[in-house]
Write a structure and sequence with these properties.
The chain is an all-alpha fold and 107 residues long. The chain has one domain. The chain is 66% helix and 0% strand. The protein has helices spanning 2-25, 31-46, 50-53, 61-87. Helix 1 packs across helix 2, helix 1 packs across helix 4 (61-87) and helix 2 crosses helix 4. The longest helix has 27 residues, at 61-87. The protein starts with a helix and ends in a 20-residue tail after the last helix.
């Protein structure tokens, strides 16, 4: 259970750090890529694998760390949805919660 909390709080830290960096550096177009890179980076720096914590044997321990980074990146989506619901601020176009335009206009 603590491992789920670690993943959720790491995802919160990644969301807010990416928001800060994208606002300061004016790179909001690359927010999703930055989220993936930062999530994998934080898992790599901490050498944290959810699979090792849950006792799930995997063949390559480094791959467990990378997949944990992807899990952290995936957990950022509920945080963005929660912040969007609380503040009514929509996410940018490159994210799944952003504004969507139809493929073709209605005739």
């Amino acid at each position: 259970m603590y491992d789920f909390a670690v993943v959720a709080l790491l995802a919160l830290a990644v969301v807010k750090t990416v928001d800060f960096l994208s606002d300061q550096l004016n790179i909001s177009k690359f927010r999703s890529i930055l989220t993936f890179l930062m999530s994998i980076g934080v898992a790599w720096l901490l050498d944290y694998s959810v699979f090792a914590a849950w006792g799930i044997p995997i063949r390559d321990a480094d791959m467990g760390v990378v997949v944990t980074g992807f899990i952290i990146a995936g957990t950022t989506v509920p945080w963005r949805a929660l912040f969007g619901w609380l503040t009514h601020e929509r996410a940018t176009m490159d994210e799944t919660l952003g504004e969507h335009t139809p493929l073709r206009s209605a005739a």
